[in-house]
Specification:
alpha/beta, five-stranded parallel beta sheet, 7 helices
Length: 178
């Protein structure tokens, strides 16, 4: 299976909690022989959709950045899209939101795929991930994706907190289950 993992934390890789869980997912998926392409939205040259409709929802994007150069073709070719994000004000990071908005250029060609969401949050209240979960479920429905799972890693504001959490095992197992 071809898997695209989109990471989106602007933190350094050594500090990012969502990047750490993405790495564990990748480790699990690679153990089953899957082909992984990782796109680091948090440290790439990316720009938001302009709403110009240059692409017509199925063509080249007018914006020539790392999304156009490195990601779009991989999204079209893949079987599974894994979105990873730190929770920022109860939604995805700005970096991931830019990537998702740019799906517009190939909406039809990325519809019907499989998907996973991995998210980390500092807060651990029961309602912490509710808005993000609703957003993800809406995206899955609109894109006609098959949701293979989500990890909502609450109480993981620091790297050492996530490293000691149950979510490490969950990410590894989710990767191995694919």
């Amino acid at each position: 299976m071809k898997i695209v993992v989109i990471t989106s934390s602007p933190r350094s890789k050594k500090k990012s909690t969502s990047e750490f869980l993405a790495e564990k997912f990748i480790e699990g998926a690679e153990s089953n022989g899957h082909e992984i392409f990782r796109f680091d939205a948090g440290h790439s040259e990316i720009n938001p959709c302009r709403g110009c409709d240059y692409c017509g929802m199925d063509g080249d994007c007018a914006i020539k950045d790392d999304i156009s150069k490195n990601l779009t073709a991989k999204l079209v070719e893949c079987d599974l899209i894994v979105l990873t994000t730190p929770l920022y004000y109860f939604g995805v990071s700005a970096q991931l939101k830019i990537v998702i908005d740019r799906f517009y250029a190939r909406t039809g060609r990325i519809s019907g795929k499989k998907s996973i969401l991995i998210a980390t949050a500092w807060n651990s209240d029961s309602w912490t991930m509710q808005a993000l979960d609703q957003y993800y479920q809406t995206l899955v429905r609109y894109m006609r994706w098959q949701n293979l799972g989500a990890i909502y890693a609450v109480g993981c504001g620091y790297r050492d907190a996530v490293e000691r959490s149950k979510f490490v095992d969950q990410a590894l197992k989710l990767g191995k289950s694919i």
